[in-house]
Amino acid sequence: MRFFDEKATKSAFRLETLAEYSVGSDGGDFARHKAGEPEPDWERKSPWLEVLRSEKESGFRRHRVRILRTPLNDYLRFECEWGYVLNSKAGEEIHILDLAEHDLPAEVVDHDFWLLDDKYPIRMHYTESGEFVGGELMDNLERYQKARDAALANAEPFEQWWARHPEEWRTNRTV
Does residue 157 have a cis bond before it (omega within 30 degrees)? Predict the structure, then answer.
């Protein structure tokens, strides 16, 4: 986290590729979402949304491409409804590359990464069950810049993608 805070002074790009992440930082919100609760834990979520708003106001660019495939699994629906809907309103630029609608560009790597200030690529490592085990600073900057650019060029803004997929909204699904 310290490396991130020191090196990400202007921008942070994230590529997400996994179908599910097993992270404790959701504060139990995924289980609550699956159980049909109406909204996330605002005590936990509100500080993060304030960080995103502050970053946007200061000129810091936080953006991501989420690679997924419709129909969505429960976890991806949770990410969209209780994560991306709120995060995008708070200032994060989120794009979706739906592999049911588009081919994966050859330049896009097959793993998660961060690209900080367009200079520092950090490959993210996860277990098979989606638990984060560590990050690795990579030395092939151009490869990760090309991966980011290709992913962004073939993705669409989250809000636009989400509006086109009301069949994925929890309120429109039957149990």
Answer: no
